[in-house]
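Each record in this resource describes a single protein on a pair of labelled lines. The shape at a given residue is found from the number at the same position. The record below illustrates this layout:

***
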Amino acid sequence: MVEKNAAVTKVSKAFLGKLNDAIARELQVAVQYMWQHVQWGGVKGFAVHDELKKIGIAEMKHAEAIAERLFYLGGIPTTKPTPIFVGSTLKEMIKQNIKDEANAITLYKKIIDAAFKEGDVTTGFLFKQILQEEEDHHDTFTTLLEDL
């Protein structure tokens, strides 16, 4: 009988922990952006609510992809998001989202470096793709803030 993960790249527990940090972050912003989408207000809110929903869904897909990879590598995905901050005004929401996307960019660059150091090319490429999307989200939020 072949062990399920016999051919899997072996990675450190610390690396698996970083992947769980990424999952927690993705869960956080998926909920945060979706609740912002629900709670928007005013004319400017009307202009961005669909974008918040779209990005929230993209973040959930990131969480799913990272969780699948983590599980394949022998880890157990977290179910706990990092602290969620919805905000009470659209400007407050978008400013927080810019910070959260910037934090993701920093974290994912570290994960990419760690993945290649661990010899895990697949995870490195996964995070390169996700990083590109996070940079797009950051650009969207910084652009939206210009008119708030």
The chain has a mean pLDDT of 92. The helical segments are 13-39, 42-72, 90-118, 121-145. Residues 13-77+85-145 form a domain with the Ferritin fold (CATH 1.20.1260.10). DSSP finds four helices and no strands in the chain.
